[in-house]
Amino acid sequence: MIAILSQIFKYVFILIIYLFIFTIIRMIYLDIRSMQSMDIGKDEAYLKVVNRLDSLNFKMQEYYVLRGATKLGRSSKNDIVIKDSFVSKNHLIIEKENGHYYIRDLNSANGTFLNGQTLYEKTELTNGDRIGVGFIQFLFVDQSR
């Protein structure tokens, strides 16, 4: 009887290990698939979220492509919606003018930070700039430069 129970536990344990391995492989596959589905062109600019997405209590994408004038805020009418309580309904706007990107705060309550400094006026963005909005940190990437 003990030999039969031992065999059953052995096979159940092997099944659990296979399910664990399958789950890990599935997670890796889904992660790779989501990276490939990014719709970023060769010469487009985008914002990359620097924060760990799993540490946030709201959903965010990893990348946000900037096309034309891009508004960011808590309101669902914005192009980039961040459900952080420290983000204003209409927080900031990033505009492309003559091939250059400019950022401007829209009189937000908690301010916008560019490379650690409070943003007071319309400022040109350069590749690698860090944008702080609430608890979120973005990295500005301009692939055309």
TrEMBL record:
One Pfam family hit: FHA
InterPro entries, per database record: Cell_Proc_Reg/RNA_Proc, FHA_dom, SMAD_FHA_dom_sf
Keywords associated with the record: Membrane, Transmembrane, Transmembrane helix
PROSITE patterns to which the protein is assigned, alphabetical: FHA_DOMAIN (PS50006)
SMART domains reported in the protein's UniProt record: FHA (SM00240)
TM annotation in the entry: 12-32
Domain FHA: 70-119
Keyword Transmembrane helix: yes
Keyword Repressor appears in the UniProt entry: no
Protein name: FHA domain-containing protein
Origin species: Aedoeadaptatus acetigenes
